[in-house]
Amino acid sequence: MNNKLDHVSKVYKSAEIIPFDDSSNIVLMSDCHRGNGRRTDNFSNNQNICIAALSYYYKRNYTYIEIGDGDELWENCSLSDILEAHSDVFWQLSKFYHENRLYFIYGNHDIVKKYDRYVLNNLSSYFKDIKVYEGIVLKHRNTQDKILLIHGHQVDYLNDQLWKLSRFLVRYLWKPLESFGINDPTSTAKNYAKKAAVGKKLTQWVESEGIMVIAGHTHKPTFPEVGEPPYFNDGSCVHPRSITAIEIQQGSIALVKWSVKAKDDGTLFVGRDVLGGPRNLKDYFTID
């Protein structure tokens, strides 16, 4: 196994284990890239959609797990600016936290959250004593089957080992150019070849280790058919006019999309569509 896949194995072996069973409700989102509310904040357009989705999941007793790049800390130096710009979202998330239904994983764009001191100094106003993980393993209480939750940048050299260089380029070169409509060519989310490469590497790890994976990073929603390697991707919260998520509910898994819809009378509302599934989780746990 190459070094990139070895890193995934290392994350798996050291991951926080969270037990679940067929009565559990879990929603996974990633790549919100919450910004400072200004022109280059890609999350701003979808903020109200996200708030509606979070309200739905909170009322239905879901556990919310954010699997990386929740906050855009490459383009922005200050997390306090992000907290202020999206205070309604953080207030919603704090409701999950106070009921022990909130977990955070860091990605490459918020990798500074791996430092406990940074988290303590910047997130304690909403989430006192919260821990931010590199990986989480969901372990079924009865079957002992496991699901690795990981952002996915660990197989992307430029966004993993060279993250400080990448952050510098994004913050001081590509962010100013983005305001003129020029995309960052190093971005996995905006490069089809890089998306495919990341998906291929994570699928290789799944096939090698026989462990189901749910990741983010590529912004490409992925929901395999039963019989295919169980590599899932929840997409992102910065799609044009929509956000995507993966739901684990009552022993099944589904890929969903939230977007603004219109009723026949022209009234707007935020609605949920199922893009993939639901399928029984047990059908993915046996890998030939």
Describe the structure.
This protein has 288 residues and is of the alpha/beta class. The protein has one domain (3-285): Purple Acid Phosphatase, chain A, domain 2. The protein contains eight helices and twelve strands.
Protein traits:
single chain, 288 residues, alpha/beta, Purple Acid Phosphatase, chain A, domain 2, 7-stranded mixed β-sheet, 5-stranded mixed β-sheet, 8 helices, 12 strands, 25% strand
Assembly state of the chains shown: single chain
Q: In one word, what is the shape?
A: globular
Helix count from the secondary structure assignment: 8
* Unreliable runs: none
And the CATH topology? Purple Acid Phosphatase, chain A, domain 2
Q: Quick check: average pLDDT? A: 91
Question: What is the count of structural domains?
Answer: 1
Radius of gyration: 18 Å
Pattern of helices and strands: HEEHEHHEHEEEHHEEEEEH
What's the helical proportion of residues?
A: 25-40%
Q: Tell me the β content.
A: 15-25%
- Estimated structural class: alpha/beta
Based on DSSP secondary structure assignment, what is the total number of beta strands? 12
- For the biggest β-sheet, the strand order reads 5-4-3-2-10-11-12
Task: Look at the structure and give the CATH class.
Answer: Alpha Beta
CATH architecture: 4-Layer Sandwich
